[in-house]
Each structure stands twice: as C-alpha cells, then as structure tokens.
C-alpha cells in the first residue's frame, strides 16, 4: 500500500498497465530509468522491483515529490526524486529507459490547473499538453538504443503519439492495450467528450495503451543489449 497525500495521483488502471508492461518486457533490469510525472512514485518503485540499476523520478507537484520520497523511504528503495518540469531537472543526464504516465484527459480549456487536483489528469482540450512535450523531448535524455514506455488513453490520440515519436527519429508501436471502466473523472467528463464525438452515446469505458518507442543506435555503434526492436 502506497502513501498518498491529498492531491497526489493515486495508482490506477493506467499505472497497472504501465507497470505490468514494464515487468513483462524486462527492460528495467540493470538499466538506468527515469520516471516522469511520477505522482506518488508507484512506477518508479516498480522499476526498482524490476531490477533497475538506478531510478530517478520527476514531478512538478511539491506534494507528489514529498509523497514519492516518502514511499521510497518506506519501501527502502533507492530512488532520486526531483521537483521539476518533465526533463528539465535531468537535462544533462542520459537514461536507458524513460517511463511516463502523464495527465492525458481532454479538458474544457487549454488552461492547465496549477493548484488543483485536476492537474493530475487535465491536459488541455485535446488531452495532449503533456503527451506532445514528452514525445518531443524524450530522445534528448535517452542513450542510443534507449526506450520510452508511455501510457495514455486512445481518447488523447494514439496515432498522434506514434507519429510524433517517429518524427523525432524513433521507432514506435503499441506494446499493450486494455479497456478501462470510467472512474469519477471520466464519468464527469463523459458528456463533454460525447459532444466532441470522442465517445459513443452508450460508451462507459476508455481504452488505455502503452506506447513503446526506441531511439536507434547510430550505424556502426554496438547495441546496448535491449530485447526486441519495436
């Protein structure tokens, strides 16, 4: 059971899909791992359990950082937790694996909450305020051959994520998908999403996907021992 301060994103279906995919693929073992939008640190701790050599976690929220640090202490896990905006605190470092469970729920406006629980899920009108930034910047903090695992809803544009990552020179595909019943946030947002044509009239679930992307190894360089190529 993880500690959770009020206003910190709880581990939910998207967290489980990402951590289950991480465990199945085995990419963390012996590797350096970065977890962005860490929330309470559930994904970072899953990387530790999966055998990561070094784990760093980042979140913009003060409460999330405090919660993640507390959970790492309680788990006796070595996790560096920094407060900052996505890759900014680690811009001079490189990692074998980046994990991300960012806010991705389409909202009424593009104004992102700053001091409200909604900052954990609201992501602009199209749900891509954080997704696009992660797609644009992940390659800068990955070693050659490094990988990104990112979880999102298909309501926020699965193909847009794949296209954006490929435009940055990465190979990308869906590694896992699963239906997720609407929770309180999505139930409250359902009429708005139906009005935009994103949901059927009778739809009460969304589909979650884990997108896997890989930064190619330069021609002539030795691969770093990762498993399959996306």
Automatic annotation (TrEMBL):
PROSITE patterns, per database record? N6_MTASE
Task: Specify the Methyltransferase small domain's residue ranges.
Answer: 15-105
According to the lineage, what is the superkingdom?
A: Bacteria
Could you give one GO CC term from the UniProt record?
eRF1 methyltransferase complex
**EC id:** 2.1.1.297
Q: What are this entry's molecular-function GO terms? A: nucleic acid binding; peptide chain release factor N(5)-glutamine methyltransferase activity
Query: Tell me, which GO biological process terms does this entry list?
Result: methylation
List the CDD domains hit by this protein, alphabetically: AdoMet_MTases (cd02440)
Write out the similarity annotation.
Belongs to the eukaryotic/archaeal PrmC-related family.
Any idea what this protein is called?
Release factor glutamine methyltransferase
Which organism is the protein's source? Kineococcus aurantiacus
């Amino acid at each position: 059971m993880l500690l959770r301060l009020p206003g910190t994103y709880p581990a939910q279906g998207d967290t489980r899909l990402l951590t289950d995919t991480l465990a199945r693929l085995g990419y963390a073992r012996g590797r350096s791992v970065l977890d962005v939008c860490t929330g309470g640190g559930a994904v970072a701790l899953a990387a530790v359990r999966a055998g990561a050599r070094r784990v760093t976690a980042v979140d913009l929220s003060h409460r999330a950082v405090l919660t993640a640090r507390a959970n790492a202490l309680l788990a006796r896990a070595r996790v560096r937790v920094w407060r900052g905006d996505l890759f900014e605190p680690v811009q001079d470092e490189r990692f074998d694996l980046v994990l991300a469970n960012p806010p991705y729920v389409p909202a009424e406006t593009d104004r992102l909450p700053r001091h409200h629980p909604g900052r954990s899920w609201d992501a602009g009108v199209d749900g891509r305020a954080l997704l696009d930034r992660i797609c644009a910047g992940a390659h800068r903090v990955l070693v050659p051959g490094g990988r990104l695992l990112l979880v999102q809803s298909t309501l926020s544009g699965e193909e847009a994520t794949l296209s954006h990552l490929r435009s940055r020179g990465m190979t990308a595909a869906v590694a896992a998908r699963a239906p997720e019943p609407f929770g309180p946030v999505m139930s409250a947002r359902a009429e708005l999403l139906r009005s935009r044509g994103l949901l059927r009239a009778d739809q009460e679930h969304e589909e979650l996907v884990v997108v896997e992307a890989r930064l190619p190894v330069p021609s002539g360089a030795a691969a770093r021992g990762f498993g399959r190529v996306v």
